[in-house]
Amino acid sequence: MTGLVLVLNSGSSSIKYQLVDPVAGTALLSGLVEQIGEADSPVADHTAGLRLIHRQLIDSGIDLAAVRAVGHRVVHGGNLFHAPTLITDEVVAEVERLDELAPLHNPANVIGIEVARKDFPDVPHVAVFDTGFFHSLPPAAAHYAIDHDVATEYGIRRYGFHGTSHEYVSRETAAVLGRDPAELNTIVLHLGNGASASAVRGGMAVETSMGLTPLEGLVMGTRSGDIDPGVLFHLNRTAGMGVAQLDELLNRRSGLKGLSGVNDFRELLDQRAAGGAAGEAAGLAYDVYIHRLRKYVGAYLAVLGRTDAIAFTAGVGENVADVRADALAGLEGLGITVDPQRNGSGKGARIISADDSRTTVLVVPTNEELAIARAAWKFV
Ligand code: ADP
């Protein structure tokens, strides 16, 4: 049986789409509608955005009768959803109820689902949850050390995000090494605009850096990652900042952007190379980014005990050799030796560690759309 899966990723102000052949593992078409709902944008809302995408699909000349399923990336599955789920009215209502946990993302996901179900009424729609892979976190990793009753009442725990990518990359890592995922311990470093780390033992996630929300953990484009929660109380008391301002500060004006003024990693590297005061700020941002990454690598080596592989993925992880080299520099004593030649060249999934490195270091391109398409295809 052949056919295509339309993969939709509705963000707060953008919708990414891809038309995927899940059996061949190829993308036939992909695109992006941006600036949804922003002033002066021709795309007033998500409904208009999806209409535009439908138009682009028709204009592409691809026979839309070949679309046999639609896969939806949904950011938060809460404690309700972990496996890919066939979407029904009840599922939509339950995802809507999770809006509180992901106020920026889940509402956009729900609108995407509702419009797409009208556009493609005769095929299964499948929700794939960004939190799903981390459902298996052991209690010691999932719990925050706060009042148990408060945590239970409000659903406060480590959920983790980018799960589709961490799962896909950990499995691809095993495939590259010709090993069974069940016997492999892997650290996955997903370094994109958002960034997260995971420790995967025998195919199951045992730790990850993002928490209740995608704000915790590594330094990101505009997000702070880890910070003393006391900073929030302090800024509330001394600067009078309220919840909305603090949310904006940590989610939009922090990370690389907060430290250097730019959130895009390419711009950060250019700015650092240009020197001057701005170059110094970019250099500091780079150093903070690397330092945090090294702390997580060290922590996850201890969580796993035996680490067979470390895989770098996403925009920065796949493309910036210096980040990979600096993140793992000087760890020969821990059995990790990156080979500069291998690290600096090559394309696609590949090994970049030296032959005598006890832990194999790899670059493994992520492909969340393909993973979502394959998950949706199972319902056809
Ligand atoms: P998203 O989280 O939006 O999916 P990506 O995984 O595409 O993000 O990663 C985006 C980040 O990767 C940006 O900071 C971008 O600058 C960086 N990036 C992508 N390609 C390169 C490159 N060739 N060199 C340096 N940085 C890159």
From TrEMBL:
Question: According to the UniProt entry, what is the EC number of this protein?
Answer: 2.7.2.1
UniProt: ATP binding residues: K16, H190, L191, G192, N193, G194, D264, F265, R266, G315, V316, G317, E318, N319
Q: Does the keyword Cytoplasm apply?
A: yes
Q: Cofactor note from UniProt?
A: Mg(2+). Can also accept Mn(2+).
Its recorded reaction(s) are: acetate + ATP = acetyl phosphate + ADP
Subunit structure, briefly? Answer: Homodimer.
Q: Could you identify this protein by its name?
A: Acetate kinase
Its source organism is [Mycobacterium] zoologicum
